[in-house]
Amino acid sequence: MTYDDALAYLDEHATYEKTGRITSPSTETITALCAAMGDPQRAAPVIHLTGTNGKGSTAQMISRLLVASGLTVGTYTSPHLERVNERISRNLEPIADEELAEQIAAIADLEGIIGRRPGYFEILTAAAFRWFADVAVDVMVIEVGLLGRWDATNVVDATVAVVTNIGMDHTEVAGPTLEHIAREKAGIIKPGSATVVGETRPELVSIFAEAGGASMLVADDDFEIVGNRLAIGGRLVDIRTPTTIYTDVYVPLHGTHQGSNAAVALVAVETFFAAPLPEDVVLEGFAETVMPGRFEVLGRQPLTIVDGAHNPPGADTCAQVFFDDFDPEGRRILVVGTLRDPEEMLAALRADEFDVVFACTAPSPRGIPAAAVADAARRLGCDDVYVFDTVEAACQRAMEYADGDDAVLVTGSLYTAGAARPALQRYAN
């Protein structure tokens, strides 16, 4: 199987990725795949992450801290921005094309043996576990794809289970309340799991406490951010953990929320080692953190930012960082394409505070048509609204329209961010 064959095989097995619908959530297929491979998900201890937002950043920070500690780390995240290889990495280096093709071919061979048709995410999850076992990683950092309980990644027994936060998302699968969503996410907590919870609302924290993990550390009670200051290119944070106070830690990511993610990541790694981390490991691990497509500044004149906010809570955070941390002086230009209710997303993004909105269709079968996004913007009171069929066309027009003092924000979906990055990098300065 060639790399192109592997991509075609994945596309043929895409269901949720194309429809956004899950009819019968189950881990039976991934369990059968893993059993047929000798359960590679048990080849190394696992730090397993769920949460509504911040999973990707927190997984990146955890992985960086583990690498700085001298371990070989297998990291599995989703979705990808530009290439599917990004989802599976060893020491944060994506799997090579030929290696991914080899792993996908092995899963394809098993499809007939197990008598089940796996989905796109199940195939990639099984491929990640198999590759991590093949290259003998010391620890796996595994990000949940959807909620937790029935997610394909939940065949692992987490040494450390991490919950970043809880917001209203995936209500088509879980809900209608935050408590329902929390219960689904609590499904990753196993009897032997040490649990680290970034969520602070008591009614939700109690749900994680009831999940039956071996121990639990909760933000604000057991650990906290005691200082969170704006710095050039990111934040400077002071973090109190159950063992130590780490001061003046530079996190090269934008937004106060990244301080909270950093605290969760640091406590998760401390919990994994059952010990505090050396100062040089902490400083090195955080300093190496990069998150393409997560409030990523691609240019300064005009200020050009890409953010993969894909739900209303994430969009609200994106708007806060844009208006509060950057407070651009020139015109504010919003390029937006989404898979969610466009009115909710645009309201969270504070679209009516932008001078112009360029609506586009996110490059996914589930992308909301650009015309519908534009109509939602007008209903919110946006006056200058334009429609583009593609993210690339919208980005090109935004950059032609913008002056050096202006600011361009491209957001609404990780699919939008992924398509925007190469289109905008041609203009970076």
Q: How would you portray this structure in words?
A:
With 429 residues, the chain is of the alpha/beta class. 39% of the residues lie in helices and 19% in strands. The protein contains 15 helices and 17 strands. It has helices at 3-12, 16-19, 28-36, 55-68, 97-114, 120-134, 178-185, 202-209, 257-273, 279-287, 312-326, 342-348, 370-379, 391-401, 414-425; strands at 46-50, 73-76, 88-90, 93-94, 139-143, 160-163, 194-197, 215-218, 224-231, 234-240, 245-251, 296-300, 303-306, 332-336, 356-360, 385-388, 407-411. The strands form three sheets. The chain has an eight-stranded mixed β-sheet, with helices on both faces. A six-stranded mixed β-sheet has the order 12-13-17-14-15-16, with helices on both faces. A hairpin with a 2-residue loop joins β9 and β10 (234-240). The chain is globular, with a radius of gyration of 21 Å. The relative contact order is 0.11.
